[in-house]
Amino acid sequence: MKFLEEINRRRTFGIISHPDAGKTTLTEKLLLFGGAIQEAGAVKSNKIKKGATSDFMEIERQRGISVATSVLAFEYKDIKINILDTPGHKDFAEDTFRTLTAVDSVIVVIDVAKGVEEQTEKLVSVCRMRNIPMIVFINKLDREGKDAFELLDEIEQKLGLTVTPLSFPIGMGYDFKGIYNIWEKNINLFSGDSRKNIEETIEVSDLQSADLDELVGENSANQLREELELVEGIYPTFEKEAYQNGSLQPVFFGSALNNFGVRELLDCFVSIAPPPKPKESDVRLVKPEEENFTGFVFKIHANMDPKHRDRLAFVKIVSGTFERNVPYLHTRHNKKLKFSSPNAFFAEKKEIVDISYPGDIVGLHDTGNFKIGDTLTKGEVLHYKGIPSFSPEHFRYINNADPMKSKQLAKGIDQLMDEGVAQLFTLEINGRKVIGTVGALQYEVIQYRLEHEYGAKCTYENLNVHKACWVDPEDPDNEEFKEFKRVKSKFLAKDKQGQLVFFADSSFSLQMTQQKYPSIQFHFTSEF
Ligand code: GDP
């Protein structure tokens, strides 16, 4: 049963963190263990400094050339690991939320000195809502930071997690001696030599033995004994099942930069992280081991090479095998499509593959057929759920600045919206187009890309909107809804799917409207 074996040896996950906690560094070290890359510095950071657009464009250009950084795959101990890239910058949070629909688990990176930060909180809350299994990695132990117990408390309180440490630091910063691996019952001594790739560990089967004092000194040894006793007393015993259903989160300590504590994390990850899971569709639950292929698009990446304006649609395989040159049903368009050069992803490159398995990501060249959330199947008509649009936070009118290029502008906007860069709304009263985004940076990105990829120019005009919410009437024919539409006609728009959206200009007016029309529900995501 090769098919089942292939499914069971796949682990598809994302690393989430606040910018600068060490996500890129950790990714790189994980790849080193897989032998997928030879040297440090090989993984491109997707970081945007101070929100500079030029920075973003530069990154996008580099990634456009090697889009493989969106998915990094490697093998370790016969497990095929797919890491999905998640941007840390808050303006791209939506991109990260969508990517989280394609992972089976996550690793959360936390800076030992900064503790739980804002982006970590947001992303973890999304994972918690979906019961995604999480492992926490506390990074930068080579620096002075918060006390381990204090930090574990903070993680429980701010992130709402139930943690249990599977490793524990011996000292910290200047006095950092190493890590005791609770999971494997051994000690890894810190030497601070970052070039060392594979660490040596020392078995410590009896914590009371004098060997421990010799290894780390009497004071540290006694402190460790006390702390481990506390750990045992306070935290629940690790259970794989509790971790896999999202109710318990194991914690590891280390220093990614020094490649320290990373092997412990990876070894535990491959033995506990879940293989691909069943996924809910609009008609039924689909299991990975089903024979027929199904999958969904969770990301679309524009090719930044102006010579070929094609895009790469990233499809997560949910069930069956995806094969080259086999026609598959695009269920939204109800038409069959065949792909002659599907890309699979490896550490730093992409290659054309003949066959891919559940858990894998394939990159399909696309000239405009796909948008985020689309489903592909062997023939069955079903649609995967769970990629909502979020209520944008910024709103501007978009105007055409070059009347000769209105077709190009329309096409550019259309395609950028399909990629999920922003959301387009059309005002009911006058047909004007409004672009809503999560971050202000997107406006510059849109302007830049419209010009460089589509040859169209646009300008923006401010619009005073506090929040956009999707309108869901109890009964579209009742008097209350008719009155709402009449009174609020100036504030109504349609999104790209034709759903009705209400633009509230302040939180007060939103509240008043909700009170006045109790039979209408106002939603802050497009999926309800
Ligand atoms: P990202 O924004 O989460 O991807 O963070 P990076 O991996 O780019 O790391 C941010 C900064 O922290 C970089 O300067 C890294 O060199 C540094 N860094 C990462 N891990 C460690 C660590 O274990 N110890 C120390 N001292 N610095 C680290």
From TrEMBL:
UniProt record similarity statement: Belongs to the TRAFAC class translation factor GTPase superfamily. Classic translation factor GTPase family. PrfC subfamily.
Domain of life assignment: Bacteria
GO molecular function, a single term: translation release factor activity, codon specific
Keywords: Cytoplasm, GTP-binding, Nucleotide-binding, Protein biosynthesis
Compartments it resides in: Cytoplasm
Name of the protein: Peptide chain release factor 3
Organism encoding this protein: Aquimarina spongiae
Subcellular location, principal: cytoplasm
Entry-linked Pfam families: EF-G_D2, GTP_EFTU, RF3_C
A GO cellular component annotation in the UniProt record: cytosol
One BP annotation, GO: regulation of translational termination
Gene that this sequence comes from: prfC
Function: Increases the formation of ribosomal termination complexes and stimulates activities of RF-1 and RF-2. It binds guanine nucleotides and has strong preference for UGA stop codons. It may interact directly with the ribosome. The stimulation of RF-1 and RF-2 is significantly reduced by GTP and GDP, but not by GMP.
